[in-house]
Design brief:
473 residues; alpha+beta; 4-stranded antiparallel β-sheet; 21 helices; 49% helix; globular
């Protein structure tokens, strides 16, 4: 693992960053316009002292003006999924759909016992671990060499493989992540604790105003589900067959249209209901036409007034395709306690070739056997999470407003989207259309909803057929 702050590190850059944050803190209470306040913040030490005093009072919004970009080299998907779950971060990740990962390398933990102390047989365990991980990577390579594209071969990759990320975030989010990795429940995972230490060392040198609060934190690694776990001693994990709509805003189409009437005409809900009925009497197609206008507005805030909650079965390989859409309320199960490894999926391209399917199943079964063998060593579960494979299935819960739903489905219903997320997206669109048919007309790939494709030369070609059909009407 190697972590580096990209830019903002020279003496001049550091002082300018601190000046900007200090000016934000000074602006609301000092005379003069913003430029005069900026100019008055010309002393680094005084600026630093001011910032520490303000954020010490709990006013942390000023440090959101200090934006930082990090290069994260050779971290695992454990790190990847964790930081993407922090919705105020920005990130670019090396694609497993486009890049052959057989030489990416993998993380090797220092194995610990149940008390998180160094395991007495660490060296012996590491040798077995390295041999097994190399076997899984070799299996991945064998699948690729046999003609399986890397997009599907990755389902056999363990969650130990190295990923590379460029991550941007403001200082407030950095502080939250660092505290979480150093002192929260995630600190029990050694890789995340290591990342927290990397961040803190960078903070000490280049974001010094964050140091006092981080140093004053105390460990809080208690399991937040301990109370519930004590009541529920055992439970079978059941993966859903398909996305399921759990709840939604009743009469969603009417809610959207009435919200447009209410804010535009500044009227009550009752008056909006009367206006809606009046418009429908004049034009029976009013609601359909009105919804179409709303769906194509640049700022379609009206469709944000309704929401839909789903349970979604998804594989670890594809989880980031959903997580990276930050404006929805996603609940992903913690990596611990360990999930049921019998819940897994095999890509259709592999199942279509019995000899490759057998190789895949054999690798999965050997992985389960190795995991069970490691458990006999009484190794800490926090060090076993790297046995998760990309094919592992899990259930997630999410709530999306109409606008977020529209945005996600535009991308994920596209024929170029990965097959599992595309199937999920199309099922979600189908179920929303059943309860909100007018809004549902605007959900899907843009070629289907708007006769527009933004893929250029990489288009699948469906848009040409749709346009031809339109011309022949």
């Amino acid at each position: 693992m190697k972590i580096e702050l990209i830019g903002g590190c020279t003496k001049d850059e550091l002082e300018k960053r601190i000046q900007k944050v200090a000016a934000a803190g000074k602006l609301s209470r000092f005379p003069g316009n913003v430029y005069e306040v900026l100019e008055s913040c010309d002393n680094y030490e005084k600026n630093l002292k001011l910032i520490k005093r303000i954020i010490g009072m709990g006013h942390k919004s000023i440090i959101e003006h200090d934006y930082l970009v990090f290069a994260l080299c050779d971290v695992t998907p454990i790190v990847e999924q964790t930081i993407i779950g922090n919705r105020l971060t920005s990130f670019t990740i090396k694609s497993r759909r486009e890049v052959d990962f057989r030489t990416a390398g993998f993380y090797i933990p220092e194995f610990r016992n149940k008390n998180l102390k160094p395991h007495s047989k660490n060296s012996e365990i590491k040798e077995k671990y390295i041999s097994h991980m190399q076997y899984l990577f070799n299996t991945y390579g064998d699948l690729v060499d046999a003609g399986i594209n890397v997009e599907d071969a990755r389902f056999i990759l363990p969650y130990s493989f190295h990923s590379n990320i460029i991550m941007g975030l403001d200082a407030r989010e950095l502080e939250k992540i660092t505290i979480s990795f150093l002192y929260g429940p995630l600190s029990r995972i050694s890789e995340l604790k290591e990342l927290g230490n990397y961040f803190f060392s960078i903070i000490k040198e280049y974001i010094p105003y964050l140091v006092p609060n981080i140093e004053n934190q105390t460990e809080n690694s208690k399991n937040p589900f301990e109370y519930m776990d004590n009541l529920i001693q055992s439970h079978t994990i059941n993966i859903a067959d398909k996305p399921t709509l759990l709840s939604y805003t009743p009469n969603s189409d009417n809610v959207v249209i009435k919200s447009a009437i209410m804010y535009h005409y500044q009227c009550s809900e009752g008056e909006a209901e009367s206006i809606l009925k009046h418009c429908e009497e004049k034009d029976p197609e009013f609601k359909s036409k009105c919804m179409n206008i709303i769906l194509h507005k640049e700022e379609a805030r009206e469709i944000e007034q309704v929401s839909f909650t789903f349970q979604i079965p998804i594989s670890l390989s594809i989880l980031t395709h959903l997580t990276r859409h930050r404006m929805h309320s996603l609940l992903v199960p913690e990596f611990l306690p360990m999930w049921d490894f019998d819940n897994y999926i095999i890509p259709a391209s592999i199942k279509a070739k019995p000899e490759l399917e057998q190789i895949f199943i054999e690798a999965h079964n050997k992985n389960m056997m190795m995991l069970n063998e490691f458990k006999k060593y009484d190794i800490a579960e926090e060090d076993l999470i790297y046995f998760y494979l990309g094919c592992q299935m899990l259930n997630v819960i999410t709530t999306m407003n109409g606008r977020t739903l529209q945005w996600i489905l535009r991308l994920r219903c596209c024929n170029k989207a990965q097959w599992q997320i595309r199937g999920i997206a199309k099922e979600i669109a189908k179920q929303v259309k059943e309860v909100s048919p007018l809004l549902g007309k605007g959900l899907g790939a843009t070629c289907m909803t708007d006769l527009v494709c933004n893929e250029g030369k990489e288009s699948c070609g469906l848009i040409n057929k749709l346009l031809e059909q339109q011309d022949n009407k």
